[in-house]
Amino acid sequence: MSFTLPDLPYSHDALQPFMSRETLEFHHDKHHQAYVTAGNNLLKDSGLEGHSLEDIVRQSYGKNAGLFNNAGQHYNHTHFWQWMKPQGGGQPPAALGQAITGAFGSYDQFKEQFVQAGVTQFGSGWAWLAVKDGKLAVMKTPNGESPLVHGASPILGVDVWEHSYYIDYRNRRPDYLKAFLDNLVNWEHVEEMHRKAVA
Fold this sequence. Notes:
Radius of gyration: 16 Å
Low-confidence stretches: none
Strand content: 5-15%
Distance between the termini: 27 Å
CATH architecture of the largest domain: 3-Layer(bab) Sandwich
CATH superfamily of the largest domain: Iron/manganese superoxide dismutase, C-terminal domain
Number of helices: 8
Structural class: mainly alpha
Strand order of the largest sheet: 2-1-3
Helix content: 40-55%
Number of strands: 3
Number of domains: 2
Mean pLDDT: 98
């Protein structure tokens, strides 16, 4: 397979004021496109041509840094756009909400852990809600890593690289993370990924 840049599932200005048109134009059209272009060049003669994106990410991890960095970020961003929607955020749907409460005690306690993971990820990286060993867990990873390479299935992730928030929030990463949870998360998509991960 070769990598292709997916279209955004909404217009560039659909997530305002929580994520601006300018951020999406830079983040999707330029940064994600760069991962796709570099990833396709590095995929050639890698021995992983024809594999699924998930397989390429897993098999290049720790073995082919250049390919992994770009394939990993392509994987992460392909899902990141789907994890957001206009008028999103707030409380998750009932079934997923019950699973979150069972794992963390309450939605508010999950929110606190998720924001803390994003705030304390030093430098570039991601904060995640993932299914590991059949249970929900909050994780954080550096750079382009994801729970996928740590034996888990990511069902929600937020990009804490500066290009994801600096235009809109400057250095206020906690405000960005709270806005993401309160106003942007596409919980229906997260619930669908959770259903598949625990099936």
